[in-house]
Amino acid sequence: MALxxxxxxxxxxWMIAVGFTFGWKFIRNYGNYLLGLEWIIVATSGSNxxxxxxxxxxxxxxxxxxAFFFDQFSRSVGITLILVLGLMRVTHRYKPSVGxxxxxxxxxxxxxxxxxxxxxxxxxxxxxxxxxVNVLTTLFLIYFSKRLWAxxxxxxxxxxxxxxxxxxxxxxxxxxxxxxxDDEAHxxxxxxxxxxxxxxxxxxxxxxxxxxxxxxxxxxxxxxxxPSRADA
Length: 232
Known about the structure:
The chain has helices spanning 3-30, 33-54, 62-91, 98-122, 124-150, 154-173, 187-218; strands at residues 94-95, 224-225. By secondary structure, it is mostly helical. Strands 1-2 form a two-stranded parallel sheet. The longest helix has 32 residues, at 187-218. Mean pLDDT is 90; it is low at 227-232.
């Protein structure tokens, strides 16, 4: 096995481990199903990607189709809208209703399927759309990092800032840049991408925990939970 292939598999295992571990922790420790399930979805995508690479799958493989769907799911809505709504639990005391949780994942699934089925016809418009939603998400994550800095969680503020910057670089080069010396499977790119996505999920979990603890310690503002039908 070549060194780059080994590094690819290690980067993927790192992302899988982080996604499953901290996805479950988001659900168990904070009842945050938006972030928990999205982390688990990313880890599931990584597991499928691992098997696809290990078995030497082709573009005709169902695993390739599944990998493409997961990729579009998370890049379009998962690590954008779902991420922002999930983090707003500690930045704005916003707790969506069960209906909103279900609805946003249904929306992400619909968008992922639409891009899977029609993305090729839309051409570069899809890539531009994915960059645009990433830029909007990055703006919120800059605010998230500033909130961490303001509560004196400077280490996690810097970590979140670095993770966001790295994620932004990956997102902006994903469809447009070919690393010199990389192979047709873009192994070098995916080593960096998988490592970055794992770093993001790891850092955002601990940054979230820092803000959650701060909110609890100061009894921050009202819980802006969406009223459910039972509350009405």
